[in-house]
């Protein structure tokens, strides 16, 4: 059993409280703490370095195969025999698990080759496609197709030599035609597609990735990639961005450098999100938010034992503007290695990370225990709200994803080259928590919608109109009802790939029963707006979301 020194989190919370009290009065509006934490499992057997929610409400997690023996055995006496493994040639423990949200339990899965610092995305049929990794896994593609039932036996399928380029610290994104694009990685200044066709069975050079590579630091790994509403890809690396027409391999727009010029990608790790796309707007705007990170040179300084403070700034840019400019905002808490989660009501949760140092082995300091809510539609200067702190430091290799019930799953943290539970500042963390935003408070129960129809797993077509029926037990404000759909993202290293929210266009809310209401709305008409696949659909009333249902758009 591992032990945890509890005095460190207490002192950190005390320091954060003192910091809040010392801030100028005009900043107090940012500090109405909310949200609650709950420990789900103290030990899932592995440290959740990568995480993806699938459409059966199960979360696939994995770390790396060369950490040594994990804390969970493979089933039925299975063992992994791999002469290429750098730590254990024969390993009878699992390095991937499936977490069942409904039963709060895990099932061990088997990966044969090394999946460390890899990338992935859920595909149009609901499968998880994972790409690359380290050592013998760097050219592999692995597929996990979800299954259900108490005796589920689905597991990883590995496809060797499926990638042309070794992919380590790359980023994936689902495209309008259902393919994935894999961008960058260490010493990989190009992109490729999966699955491949005759015309795409090669590499496509992307000099932008070489131009953004800082000597001895890189600062452009795990680039932030978002599908713009015109079908091109917004790619942010280090401190600047371009718009790529991936079909013709052409840069169609170069964006200004983020104000201040500080790096925001690994190892100077910040986080980013494409803000919700509003289908009700006549012209759909696409905005990107980039927060946190560290100053240039922080990685090298941390390697020498000097841990510089993290950045406390966010940059927001409208990438669809003809002349886009960065608008800078100040976070209430500086943060590197934070994770961004788009909540069902359109707010953004920023959680996990450190207040000093960088990503990398044992290079982070000053855990940031308090999440922050960012409200995109509030006025500039009053968009942040600090939430109640957790007690478990979530440092390098932490993860988080949104669940269908509106909670946020939080796990991982292992800043060591192996599993290390004692004698270190931040022990390897095997626990799993849930953060519940304040919209899940019991006081919101009467205002919370509950979807009656359609049933979950509904298949819809682009541009299709449907009616959604829901109940609200208390009084309703009809002009404060909206319908949102969220693509579940693949999260690792503070990068949530393929995360996407749309606010759907619809008609007026009408009463059809004592507590029952109906709204007619229309799904987006193009894969450029919503790539094909599974989304969580929510009814939101006064910023309080229902439990979601799964829909598949195709």
| Count of helix runs | 3
Shape: globular
What is the annotated CATH architecture of the largest domain? 7 Propeller
- What is the highest CATH level, the class of the largest domain? Mainly Beta
* CATH fold descriptor of the largest domain: Methylamine Dehydrogenase, Chain H
How many individual β-strands?
A: 46
Radius of gyration: 22 Å
Q: For this structure, what is the CATH homologous superfamily of the largest domain?
A: Galactose oxidase/kelch, beta-propeller
Return the average pLDDT rounded to an integer. Answer: 94
Which range best describes the helical content: under 10%, 10-25%, 25-40%, 40-55%, 55-70% or over 70%? under 10%
Biggest sheet statistics: 7 strands, mixed
Beta fraction: 35-45%
Low-confidence stretches: 1-31
How many individual domains? 2
Structural class by helix and strand composition: mainly beta
Give the distance, in angstroms, between the N- and C-terminal Cα atoms.
48 Å
Give an overview in words.
There is one protein chain. By secondary structure, this protein is mainly β. The protein folds into 2 domains: 36-440, Galactose oxidase/kelch, beta-propeller (Methylamine Dehydrogenase, Chain H, 7 Propeller), CATH 2.130.10.80; 446-553, Immunoglobulins (Immunoglobulin-like). The protein is 5% helix and 35% strand. It is built from 3 helices and 46 strands. Strands 21, 35, 37, 40, 44, 45 and 46 form a 7-stranded mixed sheet that branches. It starts with 6 loop residues before the first helix and ends with a strand. Mean pLDDT is 94; it is low at 1-31.
